[in-house]
Amino acid sequence: MAQLLPLRLRDHSSRGAKGAGADERVETSALPVFDPALELTGPLSIVAPRRIGESDLAVYPLSLGASVFGWTADSETSLSILDRFAQLGGNFVDTADSYVGGRSEVLIGRWMQERGNRDGMVIATKVGRHQDNPGLSSVSIVRAVEASLERLQTDHIDLLYFHDDDLTVPLEDSLATVEWLIESGKVRYLGASNFSADRLIEARILSSTGLPKFIAIEPHYNLVHRAEFESDLRIVASAQGLAVMPCYALANGFLTGKYRTKDDLKAGARSVRAAEYVNRRGQRVLAVLDRVAREHESTVASIALAWLLAKRSIVAPVASASRPEQVDALMAAAAIRLTRAQMLDLDRVSE
């Protein structure tokens, strides 16, 4: 595996690793859909951090999804997964207040407290789906953030996502509430999950009045689920300079190559969700992924994530692991440079 560059945030970032300074900027919005000059030169020796939109948050280009913590990964396994992630240079963890009823946040908070590494981590969480604080009313947002801070054992959230749009609440009211949370130091930046292009445009117009901007979005996007993002949403994200963090980056495990036939599917929730891709199109996609993985002496999962990372505006795909040893393939993706021909092959087979 390539040497992985340890990351630190803000005033911690200039010590110990070349190219990790807080002033380093990676302009993702200026990239083409993919870089036509890419050549097969082997894995990168150093993985550089990427900037999240207009923020001062610099992250490793892989966000560890924590939806499995306390669910398919028990407590001790979850802590081991986090340990392996940090060992390999990871610093960006994605969770939500609704994941396992808040248990995911509890485990992340315990891990940061025991390891004493809060200042070196970028924590993203989402509000709006927890049964105790549903929706995006002012009361729900404030109560949800306070509860998340307690579970995470921290005094601030680096990136707060609205988990879903809430059409019952004026968007300006939700943004004004976050403005207060930012001013109070409890939230640093704001992102949107499951928002339409039209609502992102409305939010940017509202931000011209002084309300907080969305700096990132988390759309459903991967090799076998492309149309939803590759339309108006991608255009708006590029135009607004939004950092894109694709969720379901491995299609519930399908893009790891784990599920190739109906016989591979079990009764688990993840395999049930992956079942929709076990068809002829899915097999064609896996066949090309297999070939490209062999060419790079890598894994199917790493290539699927590398395809995302070569796309314009993508900063850090969100991918999860149920065991510590699975983290290596996720992290390795950031060091892989796909060729123009490989990108075209993957684009064509997954259309």
From TrEMBL:
GO terms for cellular component: cytosol. It comes from the Bacteria. Residues 62-350 form the NADP-dependent oxidoreductase domain. This is Aldo/keto reductase. It comes from Leifsonia tongyongensis.
